[in-house]
Amino acid sequence: MQVTEANLNYMGSITLDRDLMDAVGIIPGERVFIVDNNNGERFDTYTISGERGSGCVCLNGAAARKVQVGDTIIIMAYARMTPEEAMEFAPKVAFPENNRITQKL
User: Fold this and answer.
1) Residues of 1-14 as b/e, b for ≥16 C-beta within 10 angstroms?
2) Where in the sequence numbering do the catalytic residues fall?
3) What is the SS3 assignment for 22?
4) Which domains does the chain have, with CATH numbers?
5) Helix or strand run (H / E) with residue 23
6) Contact 1, 57 (CB under 8 A)
7) Are the beta carbons of 89 and 95 closer than 8 angstroms?
8) For residue range 22-80, what is the model confidence (pLDDT) as tens digits?
9) What is the pTM of this model?
10) Chain centroid, CA 90 distance in Å
11) Residue 25 phi/psi, 5° resolution?
């Protein structure tokens, strides 16, 4: 995914196109971990639902200082589960192009 905006004038979070969130099962307010492939930054924040179909990937507040518009980032969400649940769990992975879902695993 590519960062489309960095907004220092907000308390925190990452605003994501709701279509991107739905494609992988991320919900508003969920804690996510971000890796910036351009500068090596790793940090966590929470999600805010953005406009559907917008391609929005906006880091807000302090997180905005860790990225530049145009950077390629990876967004990861984790879950706690028992070993039995983990054996049945199938993660959702998406590979967006231009911040639009083109391929999911």
Assistant:
1) bbbbebeeeeeebb
2) 13, 46
3) helix
4) 5-104 (2.40.40.20)
5) helix 18-24
6) yes
7) no
8) 999 999 999 999 999 999 999 999 999 999 999 999 999 999 999 999 999 999 999 99
9) 0.89
10) 19
11) 80, 25
